[in-house]
Amino acid sequence: MEFISDWGRIFKGADESFEQTLVIGYCKRKQTLRMKNAIIIGATSGIGKELARLLIDDGFKVGITGRRTELLESLKSENPDSYFIKTFDVKDIKVAEEKLEELISELGGLDLLVLSSGTGDINDKLDFEIEIRTIETNVIGWTFISDWAFKFFEKQKYGHLIAISSIAGLRGSRQSTSYNATKAYQINYLEGLRQKATKLNEQIYITDIRPGLVNTEMAKGEGLFWVMSVEKTARQIYEAIKKKKKIVYVTKRWKLIAAIIKRIPRRLYDRM
Q: 63-76, pLDDT tens digit by residue?
């Protein structure tokens, strides 16, 4: 009888373990299925706009933001039922917070936020107006959105923050000092957020997208090479998002360029 009783306890334990496995698996699947609400900061053009289209094609409801309402309306006209618009400048922190909260209410939640807003100009003469405009957008406004998203995901215990930094953040530049510096800031900031997410041990993911030269308004200068189409770049970014990668160079060939840039001796780099 003791022998039968022991086996009974074993089978009971196995049943309980199996049930727990099913519950955990169901919860994970349920969470995966509900990840269909996204916000893109900076969707009026370029990478942000193309990513919005890819998300819509994949069944997402997408909140799109930017400074130019007419461009957002044009994008919304492609799929009126799936796009939700809010117009604001990331530098206007109070308005940005209000609009983001409104978007979440309209979407019915938030699972993924893409931070694609940014600015930069060639500034050989160190025009301070250009420098401060770049810093206000790429550092102050960018940091507010990043922090807001991270704290939102921390509270709900899951979410994915994707930010478009740049290969330019790897080294300084005599032509665009503030732009490269702000991108270096973003790269380091995202690494800090990734550490926080790891410590929380929740399903919070941080993805740093580092594009090379993409055929957008941001690609400035003469003699540019390996300039990639927005469509190809966005497709590679979206594949990386789905795989929840931590750091991604796009297009893929720019990973090689990044490795070379990092290894150029400082004495030589200073003369470039």
A: 999 999 999 999 99
pLDDT of residue 216: 60
Answer whether 217's CB lies under 8 Å from 46's CB: yes
Its pTM stands at: 0.83
Q: pLDDT tens for residues 216-238?
A: 655 444 445 567 888 999 999 99
